[in-house]
Amino acid sequence: MKYISTRGKAPTLGFDDVLLGGLARDGGLYVPEPWPRLDAGAIAGFRGLPYPELALRVMRPFMKGSIAEAALAGIIDQAYRNFDTAEVAPLTELGNGEWLLELFHGPTLAFKDMALQFLGPLFDHVLKARGEWVTVVGATSGDTGSAAIEACRDRDAIEIFILLPKDRISEVQRRQMTTVLSANVHNIAIEGTFDDCQDLVKAMFNDQPFRDRHRLTAFNSINWARVMAQIVYYFWAAVRLGAPERSVAFAVPTGNFGNVFAGYAARVMGLPVSQLIVGSNRNDILTRFFETGAMQIGEVHPTISPSMDIQVSSNFERLLFDLEGRDGGRVAKIMAGFRKTGRFTVEARTLQAARAIFDGARFDDEVTKNTIHAVLKDSGLMIDPHTAVGLAAGRARRRNANVPMVVLATAHPAKFPDAVEAATGVRPALPARLKDLFERKERCAVLTNDIAAVKRHVQERARAKAAA
Ligand SMILES: *Cc1c(COP(=O)(O)O)cnc(C)c1O
Predict the structure, then answer these.
(1) What's the whole-number mean pLDDT along residues 241-246?
(2) Quick one: fold of 91-108+225-424?
(3) Which of 127, 187, 189, 429 has the smallest CB count inside 10 Å?
């Protein structure tokens, strides 16, 4: 399988180089060329398969000519062994043809684990095969850091450094990172804000000799392999609800557009997806786009669904590339304009093509809380604020009541206990695997907001120290 850039200028690459390389050299994102297709017979054959086996069949065309099938099966088994249910992603019925797809059974209680638990062993495998290693660095405001740490812990070919703003993240979030005592995991609390942490990470990446010496890399949401691993559960859910004979609608709480783009990919591959509903909180750049055809950056507002407090949805460029007929030159022009002015618009027929598949809806924190409350009352189920935004959007925009609708439940309610308690009066309990979180030993360095100190710290703990 070959991969091309959405901006048309970067070299065509194979899967391994796309995995390790991240952003394309022309600033674009890599996408498969062509999209692999699965016919109805192949999809019907997914029925009854365990999650790892189905994952292998959905993902293997993307890695054709790269990772051997037996090795890939081993990596997938490792990835999903850490989930607290053999089903990996259970489907729960809400009534009225509404279903919750629970994507929060991984080690950090959010859907990021669905992809990152796979990315860790996949990176390790590809790096070892090449005799290479990398240093993952990242800044976190809470959630992504723990998912990245759980993905990388105890991996031979990976060293990971995560910067977190000291005393500015919740204790549960901090402990999910600092209680991982693996030798290759390094938590650094910075005396500063999340933005300070991000600036420090950027400064490390911008120091080319430092970046090269330590082979810095990021596990960010534009990595193609993350999208790829997310395609699997769209097939998993749809097949259980009658695909390929029956179509299925999906409602997805959306930030960076990675999760819902995976649903689009499943549809292009042949899954009968009738519609994709994008749920936004007050940060509604995507909903406004689907309403007007204009993508216009606004201010970021903090909400009770913080993992969607985003203004630029970086994975959207992958959809734009297809909407614009896979014309990289055109996408490059649009994105250059967007960078300059914070705005772009698409032609009426492009918007129409997007709207044939996508709907969007936005909800404020009040509706989000009411939705959490109503679901507990009606079904006895607790949902988290992100899931509530997705469900509210699904209920508002569902086109056909006879087509089952799957709402992606992206976090465990105990991950956002304050919001859930405010909505319901009940504080959700941590699941069994985290029951002793508050008794576990922590390890975390504390550094001032000073790039020289941070670099020294990394240098002293990194693999390249002997060479420096
Ligand atoms: C990251 C995240 C989202 C948003 O997913 P995108 O792929 O960025 O659209 C939604 N809910 C939760 C809980 C998340 O962690």
Answers:
(1) 98
(2) Rossmann fold (3.40.50)
(3) 429
